[in-house]
């Protein structure tokens, strides 16, 4: 665990609340080796960080895919031991990509439970602007919310990003446009390869390729973005020295 580079400020109660789980469940995952031990502070109080929260989100995603606890244990054991919260989020995104689109109508209380935090009216409005939730007057308890479960964690994470709503929506538009273009070109490529196959073979190939393609897209995008940021920050540093 990379405790030297990230804050460890959550108590186990706070961690459980953020993850939308009970303290008992968090402790259980710890005994199973699915969660690294906390950092012990004064009076031997355990403190947890972003990596623990990211691991719990990954475990929850694996459960939603129908994996048993034994299968989740095997999956987690195969992960590199030095993954940080960012790397774990990428793994979770790949796992989430396996699932069909999931939209549910939930109450405000259930929305906050799924989000792992309290949500103010402004937060809900931002999530709605991002296409993550949509008010539904037919929901439980009066007004409910139709929630895209695949986007909820991402949307909640973006609530804390110091970017304007306009910048986030513009970034969403760029990602959607380019991802659709990439998906179209890849589909054309694969279509040419499987044109002679039977329909069942095509479905099998598609199911097998989808997680692999998602992993490749995420990995290449991560590296490209890192290079862009490195060039940009390097240019900013050069400007600062020449000023």
Q: Span from first to last CA?
A: 39 Å
**Strand order across the largest sheet:** 3-5-4
Kindly identify the CATH topology of the largest domain: Multidrug-efflux Transporter Regulator, Chain: A, Domain 2
General form: globular
- Which residue ranges are poorly predicted, with pLDDT under 50 across at least 5 consecutive positions? 1-6
Q: What is the average of the pLDDT values?
A: 77
Total number of helices: 10
Backbone CA Rg: 20 Å
How many distinct domains? 3
Question: How much helicity do the residues have?
Answer: 55-70%
Quantity of strands, as a count: 5
- What is the name of the CATH class of the largest domain? Mainly Alpha
Largest sheet: 3 strands, antiparallel
Do you know the CATH architecture of the largest domain? Orthogonal Bundle
Order of helices and strands: HHEEHHHEHHEEHHH
- Structural class, from secondary structure content? mainly alpha
Beta-strand share of residues: 5-15%
- Oligomeric form of this entry? single chain
